[in-house]
Amino acid sequence: MKRVVFFALTVLLFSCKKESEDNFGQPKSEAIEKVSGQELFEGKGNCIACHQAEQKIIGPSMAEISKIYKDKNASIVSFLKEESQPIVDQSQYEVMKTNFAITKKMSDEELKALEDYIFAH
Ligand code: HEC
């Protein structure tokens, strides 16, 4: 529980900071017009409802997804377009599938931003 609160606070902190300080140490945020993976993950995509950074809740943690995708050199973008099969947890795939309605409407740039965000964990 403590972790969840801490996580929520961190997210809050970050979202406030972004308004006022653009370059705070993250080389990737140089391109200001670039879509933010974090914003998509927590906002429009609502991925945060089922995926946390380190802890499995409904879906696997971002850390777990990131590790498996990196190990297998797989593409999260393709998965979110429903062009590739699940490799993390086939048994729960039906639950994840409901999100393709949202992710299929996203641009390649947005999907790449989500992938980068997950890979940062
Ligand atoms: C309703 C809960 C829920 C939401 C919301 C959700 N997911 Fe998932 N996700 C899951 C579950 C459950 C799994 C495990 C099944 C699986 O691996 O396909 C999963 C798996 C994944 C995987 C691993 C797929 C694989 O290869 O097995 C990725 C990547 C992923 N989600 C990304 C996202 C992104 C990005 C969003 C937001 C657009 C999102 N998820 C929103 C429940 C959710």
TrEMBL record:
Transmembrane segments: none annotated. Signal peptide: none annotated. InterPro entries: Cyt_c-like_dom, Cyt_c-like_dom_sf. This is C-type cytochrome. The keyword Heme applies. The lineage of its organism: Bacteria, Pseudomonadati, Bacteroidota, Flavobacteriia, Flavobacteriales. GO terms for molecular function: electron transfer activity; heme binding; metal ion binding. It holds the Pfam family Cytochrom_C. Residues 32-121 form the Cytochrome c domain. Keywords: Heme, Iron, Metal-binding. The keyword NADP does not apply.
